[in-house]
Amino acid sequence: MAEQPAAPAVAQPRPSRPLGVTVVAILQFLGGILLVLGGAALAALPQLVGLPLFGFLLGGLGVFLVVIGALALLVGWGLWTGKGWAWWLTVILQALNIVLSLASLALGELTAIVSLIIAAIILYYFFKPHVKAYFGVKVGFST
Fold first, then answer.
1. pTM
2. Boundary-marking domain end, from 60, 81, 102
3. Average pLDDT of adjacent 10-residue blocks, the chain of 143 residues
4. Closest Cα to residue 89, out of 52, 135, 35?
5. What is the extent of the structural domain holding 123?
6. Residue 135 class from Cβ within 10 Å (0-12 exposed, 13-18 middle, 19+ buried)?
7. Structurally, how many domains does the chain consist of?
């Protein structure tokens, strides 16, 4: 008796992008644009003003900011399009942000409470089932 071929799997439609993910992605885009523009301006400033030695440091910092800005734009795109790696990267960076905010608070920097609260909210939100479903992430615990 011949086996019957298995029925083709029906692809589940991707859930729509949650509003909070849209907000975080837009903030990533805006931050990336500002970093790229600011870094480019900082890299060009020494050439315009004529500061050779100091210009080397400013130019290097400018290039660094352009690279960080480009990475922020890439993460924004990943969040916008629901890439799993963007979810993981955001979770890791927000967890790191919480650790750094706690260290700043321990050193007496009371304004770090704002960063701590924002990072905690984003981290909590990214573990909501509908957000994980949008990114196709299957992590054992959820809120």
1. 0.82
2. 81
3. 62 85 98 97 80 78 95 98 97 96 96 96 96 91 55
4. 135
5. 82-137
6. buried
7. 2
